[in-house]
User: What shape does this take?
Amino acid sequence: MLSKFGMTTVKTSSTPMSTSVKLSIDDEGKIVSDKLYRGMIGSLLYLTASRPDIAFSVGVCARFQSAPKECHMSAVKRVFLYLKGTSHFGLWYPSCGPIL
Assistant: This one.
């Protein structure tokens, strides 16, 4: 997924979302490609099944799919930075036997 969006050579982040940044509708911000933004959000939403640690951050970013701005895209990219640094995290669902 990181290579699909060109983020294989970026640094990592220790948290999926900054606590100091509050996302809201930004009427004055620079518009970004809504197709790219929706693609990134869709990929992240699919990943939340095995990565519940990003569920809140992805949910907040998904609210702005109708008119994404640069500040929203930077928040989504931060989730990707977090994923790159925590690729060993996740839930494992066995194909047979009980789920413990």
